[in-house]
Specification:
globular, alpha/beta, seven-stranded parallel beta sheet
């Protein structure tokens, strides 16, 4: 069977597709990955065959201005209750949807032309690559959407999330002789059921499989250098010697044997300091309150391993899923790939979420008891507010390390994820449907 995959961006969008594409190849099927020109190298590094699908205008590479200006705390279940959102929030969603439609328009001509030539029997597209549905509809073959770890199926292609297709998307479908109401046959969802919000669309659970290229970490796409299996950490003992130990659980009365009292941040249940992972995707790096919390963890003897822009000039620590197994907690922004990597590792999560989808993921993780969540908007303001917010984040981080309930909930999520069918099972289901 010929299977055409397509996405518009590397990073988390491509990461979600790679395990399934490899499973199709292993089962003896033919696979191609249609992407804009700038993504072809990442596809080839994954061991897959890229084919051209248009060129994206540079302006579409960044989120729209309305999304960049989005502030405030969004309701915890906004994708399934869009009526609770205000005009400004709906404006953000409309701007994001219009951007994805513009990306689909830039890809559609090349994608449909290649599909008509190659004649795939199935099209698999990441959830935000609407050109995949257009191509499948133009050929009359099934389309399958691949989610990337969001706890909800975000229908940005619809007006106000649950209305009719956006006008630009409807025009694009009609241009290729397709019904604008045409939907993907199925959505592949790597999110464990306990985290996922319900939706009327048909979803097939598929276990999350971390993707690792031998040349780069797809979780940290900003690094262009070849991947080296190293990590750079800040050892708490050295940091504590410079800054002193704060008053609290690390000092006080000694026990009857003359040993210092047990501190789960300094010692943990095993030998050596507790490791905490800090992964931050945004280029400017984490806000000062986050840095304050990490410094507090180091001052108590913890070992902080920094990834992405949280590395602050250090070499890349390697793929997140390789670093997490030795950690007792992870602090990150709430991106879908990071959430699922922590779930697979069974590590409690502290999510500091700037954007609406990240806030959604953080709220769902907190609801399961496997972590804590703070909207990033609560951390800004004056230096005094930032210091207070940093102190609160540090308390939240210490709670993840000290309260067994977080570990129990994280392990429960891990077992739930392990019980989900893998990509090989999805290949069988999709082959039968096609």
């Amino acid at each position: 069977m010929r299977v055409l995959f397509t996405t518009w961006a590397p990073g988390g969008h491509l990461v979600a597709l790679v395990p399934l594409a490899r499973a199709f190849l292993a089962a003896g099927h033919q696979v191609r990955v249609a992407v804009p020109g700038g993504c072809a190298a990442a596809v080839a590094r994954a061991g897959l065959m890229p084919v051209p699908a248009g060129v994206l205008p540079r302006a579409l590479g960044a989120p729209p201005a309305a999304a960049r200006r989005a502030r405030g705390i969004w309701p915890a279940d906004w994708p399934v209750r869009p009526g609770v959102l205000g005009p400004e929030q709906h404006g953000v969603l409309r701007a994001l949807g219009d951007r994805q439609v513009a990306i689909a328009e830039a890809m559609a001509q090349g994608l449909v032309a290649y599909a008509r030539c190659w004649q795939p029997e199935l099209v698999v597209h990441d959830a935000s690559t609407y050109a995949g549905t257009v191509a499948a509809a133009a050929l009359g073959v099934p389309a399958v959407g691949q989610l990337w770890g969001s706890t909800a199926l975000l229908r940005l292609d619809r007006e106000r999330l649950d209305g009719p297709p956006l006008p630009g998307y409807a025009r694009l479908m009609r241009r290729y002789g397709a019904d604008p109401a045409r939907e993907p046959e199925l959505w592949l969802d790597p999110c464990p059921p306990s985290l996922a919000l319900p939706s009327p669309e048909r979803r097939l659970p598929v276990r999350f499989v971390p993707y690792e290229s031998p040349y780069e970490s797809m979780y940290e796409p900003r690094y262009e250098a070849p991947y080296e299996p190293l990590y750079e950490s800040s050892h708490g003992a050295q940091h504590g010697a410079r800054h002193g130990t704060p008053r609290g659980a690390c000092e006080g009365a000694y026990d009857a044997a003359g040993d210092p009292p047990y501190d789960p941040v300094r010692q943990g249940p095993g030998i050596g300091p507790v490791r905490i992972c800090a992964a931050w995707e945004d280029a400017p790096g984490p806000p000062e309150a986050v840095r304050t919390a990490l410094r507090a963890a180091e001052a108590r003897g913890g070992e902080v391993i920094r990834l992405g822009s949280a590395a602050e000039g250090r070499p890349p620590a390697g793929p997140l899923h390789r670093v997490l197994p030795g950690c007792r907690a992870v602090l990150h922004q709430g991106g879908g790939a990071a959430v699922l990597a922590a779930v697979v590792a069974g590590v409690p999560q502290l999510i500091v979420a700037p954007r609406p989808e990240q806030q959604l993921n953080g709220a769902r993780v907190a609801l399961t008891g496997a972590g804590a969540y703070t909207p990033a908007d609560l951390l800004g303001g004056s230096p005094r507010i930032a210091r207070a917010a940093g102190a609160q984040l540090a308390r939240d981080l210490f709670a993840l390390l000290e309260q067994p309930s977080y570990v129990v909930a994280a392990h429960t999520l891990r077992e739930e994820t392990r019980s989900m069918p893998g990509p090989e099972a999805a290949v069988k289901r999709l082959t039968a449907r096609a």
